[in-house]
Amino acid sequence: MKKANLMTPSRITLLFISALLFWRCEGPIGPQGPPGADGVDGVNIVGEVFEIVGDFIPGSDFRLRGEYGFDLLESDKVLIYRLDGTDQEGTDIWRLIPQVVFHEEGIFTYDYDFTYFDYTIFLNGDFDLNNLEPALTDDQIFRVLIIPADRIDLRMDFSDHQGVLEMLEIDEEDIKRISLNK
């Protein structure tokens, strides 16, 4: 049985002419839209960064609580870093929390949780936290970084505090400090 050739010269010509006609057709041009505002390209979404200082005390159940002063979007990411000292050159060492600390009494962590209105930084340990030295509980400094969803790069190393600040285009001198001590 002989197979029929579907692409005969007449069909190829008809296909070519049809494609040419549809490709060349244009509809009427519509009216011009309203002009946009000069110099306004859209919304520039930036991250927020602020420092907090506080004491972990038994009366507050070893917790620091605060409010942002603005609402977060559901897609925003909240990171909190703890100032863990300085290096040989005097540069601050920031550690992303949760941070596990091995203490002579046992293990404890600096940890946090957050809502879209506030945050809580807390200590959690497997021993009586009243036994911690004041250097681990008093005048603790934390940085709260709010990263908008459009700036989140999942391949980024979020433990690199300086890299995150550079990505957010935030300078050290622009970071405000809030004291939670009363």
Distance between the termini: 96 Å
Low-confidence stretches: none
Q: Order of strands across the widest beta sheet? A: 4-3-8-1-9
Average pLDDT rating = 81
Contiguous helical run count: 3
Structure summary, number of beta strands: 9
Oligomer: single chain
Rg calc: 30 Å
Overall 3D shape: elongated
Fraction of residues in H or I helices: 10-25%
Largest sheet: 5 strands, mixed
Content of β-strand: 25-35%
Task: Summarize the entry for a quick read.
By secondary structure, this protein is α+β, with helices and mostly antiparallel strands. It has helices at residues 9-24, 134-137, 161-168; strands spanning 48-54, 63-67, 77-86, 92-96, 99-103, 106-114, 118-125, 140-147, 176-179.
How are the SSEs ordered, and which strands pair?
Layout: H1 9-24, E1 48-54, E2 63-67, E3 77-86, E4 92-96, E5 99-103, E6 106-114, E7 118-125, H2 134-137, E8 140-147, H3 161-168, E9 176-179
Parallel strand pairs: 1-9
Antiparallel strand pairs: 1-8, 2-7, 3-4, 3-8, 5-6, 6-7
Note down, in words, how this protein is organized.
A hairpin with a 2-residue loop joins β5 (99-103) and β6. With 182 residues, the chain is of the alpha+beta class. The protein has helices at 9-24, 134-137, 161-168; strands at 48-54, 63-67, 77-86, 92-96, 99-103, 106-114, 118-125, 140-147, 176-179. The strands form two sheets. Strands 4-3-8-1-9 form a five-stranded mixed sheet.
